[in-house]
Amino acid sequence: MHYELYIDSLFFLNFIMNLFLLFLVDRSTLRMASPGRMAAGAAVGAACALLPFLLEGKAIVKLAAGAALGAAGMLCITFRVRSLRMFLKLLERLAICSFGMGGGMLFLIRLFPGLREVLASLPGILGMGAIFLLLFARLRDEPYGEGPCRAVLRRNGRELAVGALIDSGNSLFEPISGKPVCVVGRAVFDGLWEGFREGFRAVPYHSIGKRRGILPAYLLSELRLETGGMEYLFTDVYVAVSDEEISGADSAGAESVNMIINPRLFAERKRGGRGKRQNERRYDTESHDTGKDAIQDNPQG
Predict the structure, then answer these.
(1) In this predicted model, what pLDDT tens digit does every residue of 81-100 receive, in sequence order?
(2) Which of 49, 61, 136, 231 is the most exposed place for a label (fewest CB within 10 A)?
(3) What span, in angstroms and rounded, lies between the C-alpha atoms of 44 and 76?
(4) Is the distance from CB of 39 to CB of 18 less than 8 angstroms?
């Protein structure tokens, strides 16, 4: 049996499907990649898919080599992979999205045998891919969770790495912009801020043991968090300064906790990274959510 293969159609099909998959992976990582990097990664993956048809050798070897090079090239170009663990985490998510979308397409083809020819055509495959893209994109993913992580703070060319804790008990918000606020100890603050301290804000808080108070907060130019094998970058983050020790080494294991991360940083980035001004009452630290979400005055932060 003889088949005719159109390289341009095959490349276009793989490019669009790779773009769908990278969009889903990027969504699960809180949109770390730009559209240009996703397009470049999808193009590299599509080019690697053509290698089995251009090289000589056993078909299984060529297919495996093309798939491996395509997946690695797509991820490394689309995302700034900084470690093997991060690469494996991204590869896992790419595999889940690929098998999920591919299995869904096969299910539709078998469910409607009369439409097999239409669904297996180029427009049909792209149409099914777009449908599953819309369905999977609605699934909520919370990759950060809660617990210890590593934080790297950068300001005016200076960098400081500290142990941190993602804690839903931190519900602090800067009252003007509505941006979530993280908390650091005095030692961390003095290690980064020297001289003129721009971006000052007064952040009200309410906690167990104290009726109310004000924490001084300052704008941090860059915050990088490493958790769950992934790395997340945030810019222009408000950081409040606590004169009390946040946590000692005894309660945090091998490394003491010197920073409390507001998990709403991730939610803000998931919405597109834009700081939205909210109703002050919604973020009032003395609201009915205080008992659940307010920072507690204890050694755990």
Answers:
(1) 878 888 998 999 899 999 99
(2) 61
(3) 10
(4) no
Q: Give SS3 for 163.
A: strand
DSSP H helices, 112-182, are: 116-119, 122-137
- As a whole number of angstroms, the distance between CA 234 and CA 266 comes to 9
Q: What are phi and psi of 173, to 5 degrees?
A: -135, 145
Q: What dihedral angle (degrees, nearest 10) is formed by the CA atoms of 291, 292, 298, 299?
A: 180
Phi and psi at residue 279, to the nearest 5°: -65, 130
196, with CB counted inside 10 A (0-12, 13-18, 19+), is exposed
pTM, rounded to two decimals: 0.64
Q: How many alpha carbons lie under 13 Å from residue 237 in its C-beta half-sphere? A: 31
> Is the CB of residue 165 less than 8 Å from the CB of residue 257?
yes
Alpha-carbon separation of residue 189 from 29, 143, 222, 250, 300 (angstroms): 29, 28, 14, 22, 19
Cα–Cα distance, 171 to 294 (Å, whole number) = 5
